[in-house]
Design goal:
- By secondary structure, this protein is α/β, with parallel strands linked by helices.
- The protein has 2 domains: about 5-210, 2-enoyl-CoA Hydratase, Chain A, domain 1, CATH 3.90.226; about 215-260.
- Helices cover about 50% and strands about 15% of the residues.
- The protein has a 7-stranded mixed beta sheet, with helices on both faces. A 3-stranded mixed beta sheet has the order 6-8-9.
- Helix 2 links the parallel strand 3 (about 25-30) and strand 4 (about 60-65).
- Helix 2 packs parallel to helix 4 and helix 10 packs antiparallel against helix 11.
Length: about 260
């Protein structure tokens, strides 16, 4: 299948861009002058693009990357700092769209990969780790930043980070860490793979394409099962596994794979 590019990706002044290459969709945060910080415009655009991808059955993997020198610097402090007494409605409006984007990423039956270079701070850190996988340049930096502003995390950070490292390490990251390295994030299990900065795009593409070779039913069931495992009682999880594998066995990719195996 040839690469295709949406109208969004052709309009470079858009705050987020979408391109689709076969079974891989790429969302690019596109506010490089503001280090891809999250304001209302980018939140609304991300919500729309995620819904568009979720409805596209041909897409199996979604990559999220940042344009410019950083992955994402978090919430746009220009917007938030100028809100004054309107801070509560401003934050609620912003997060209603941004959290809808995050919820769609988690709910969609596709694997989401964050590809991190430069800095991922605040909501950028949350975005990096709410993704199903994170690949990072080995010189990337992660900063929770929320504690420096006297606020609590958003953007799914308490979900993605806690799922991976547990509550004690999550508390450390959000309340007792300043900036930590990509190597540290890798050792904690937050980053799937580290690569040299100049190899990040190529390595991200290779990882996305490898995952995209999996059957859609397998991707969907595996993602659902793994994200449900921590909160599902043991027997119920086993029952869900049985339903998942039985459902996959009713698909054409399974029948083809079995026939190929038996024909050896």
């Amino acid at each position: 299948m040839t690469a295709t590019t949406t109208a969004d990706a052709q309009t470079t002044d858009q705050p987020a861009l979408l391109s689709v290459d076969g079974a891989v969709a790429t969302i690019t945060l596109n506010r490089p002058a503001a280090f891809n910080s999250i304001n209302l415009a980018i939140a609304q655009t991300l919500e729309r693009l995620a819904a568009q991808i979720a409805a596209d059955d041909a897409v199996r993997v979604v990559v999220i990357e940042g344009n410019g020198r950083a992955f994402c610097a978090g919430g746009d402090l220009q917007t938030l700092g100028n809100a004054g007494e309107r801070i509560v409605p401003v934050v609620h409006e912003l997060l209603s769209h941004y959290h809808a984007f995050i919820a769609t990423l988690r709910r969609m039956p596709k694997i989401v990969i964050s590809s991190v270079h430069g800095s991922a701070a605040g909501a950028g850190l949350s975005l990096a780790f709410i993704a199903d996988m994170c690949i990072a340049a080995n010189d990337a930096k992660f900063t929770a930043a929320y504690n420096k502003l006297g606020v609590s995390p958003d953007g799914g950070g308490t979900i993605g980070v806690t799922e991976i490292v547990g509550s004690r390490r999550a508390l450390q990251i959000f309340l007792a860490e300043d900036t930590f390295s990509a190597q540290q994030a890798y050792e904690w299990g937050l980053v799937t793979k580290l690569v040299p900065p100049e190899e990040l795009k190529t390595a991200t593409k290779a990882l996305a394409q490898r995952i995209a070779r999996n059957a859609p039913a397998s991707i969907k069931a595996t993602k659902e099962l793994i994200h449900a495992a921590a909160s599902t009682p043991f027997v119920e999880q086993l029952e869900a596994e049985a339903r998942g594998i039985a459902g996959c066995m009713q698909t054409e990719p399974y029948r083809i794979a079995v026939a190929k195996f038996l024909g050896k």
